[in-house]
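can u pls check wat happens w/ PMV
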Amino acid sequence: MKAIARAYANFALIKYWGKKDELLKLPVQSSLSFTVDEFYTDMTVTFKDNLKKDVLYIDELLITDKKYTRIHNFMNIVRQRYKIDKYAIIESSSNVHIGAGLASSASSFAALAYAVNLALNLKLSKKELSILARLGSGSASRSIHGGFSLWKAGTDETSYATSLKIDWPEFRMIAVIVNDNEKKIGSSEAMKASLNSPFYDAYVKQSKNDLKAMQNALKEKDIYKVGDIAERNALLMHSTLLPLDLWYFLPDTIKIMNEVKKLRENNIPVYFTMDAGPNVKLITTQEYLNAITSHFKEYPLIVLKEGKAVYGKRIS
Ligand code: PMV
């Protein structure tokens, strides 16, 4: 009853921001993302007869803080859903900095859902896997798939992500690392507060239009449209936080945003998006990479291509 799985992080071009059901992690609006190749999490899960509780190791360190509680709560959902009475040893290792707005929870819970599926021989479909991953972290529902995926808001068993099957090998994101420390305000807490933001309803309304426009722009592989819609969608998401004193932006975040605008004035199609942290992800295509990376030499940069769907193997 042991398996290992790898899942890649994803970054949203149309954001998930706000839950209509906290427990079931049902989003207020549908979202759309790109699974990337360079950020991933490996998860090993071993169910054992003689354990009295779950045990969690992250990068070989025994974890007992709130990260444990989150994983343990997820494992309780697994036990209840699939009528299992065993606890497990969960070993996670990730090249993503946890809690820095670099989608570590997406890759972690997608990998965990898949490892559980293999270890217990559940034979879950992609739909069932996406629903299970969602119950750990909303954005993890999308990391079940490679490339572009769409998570329809839905209601419980209809709230899951599907692959958009867009073949665009030249599409790139570039992570610009401003600060990779663990953030002070987690995404769950901030998105909950946003529901009371005076800008929240406007954001949700616009997001519905953005989603339709984004799907068309992706079909056309139009980087100008894709980048423009994604950038405005991210800014609108972050605008909900501004009046609540909860913004994630650091001075370098704003500096990079301004530099991106300048590059566009020089006819380089590059756009930005930010998640629950100060780091910036740039959106562009292969042909403009050199012009962009040479402009941001002072920051660690990670060029991101399309990442694969979750995968793994059963060990015993
Ligand atoms: O799944 P969570 O709770 O980590 O929330 C992710 C929220 C954002 O990354 C900010 C947006 C998104 O759609 O990924």
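The pocket of PMV is lined by residues 12, 15-17, 31, 105, 137-139, 187-188, 275-276 (CB under 6 Å).
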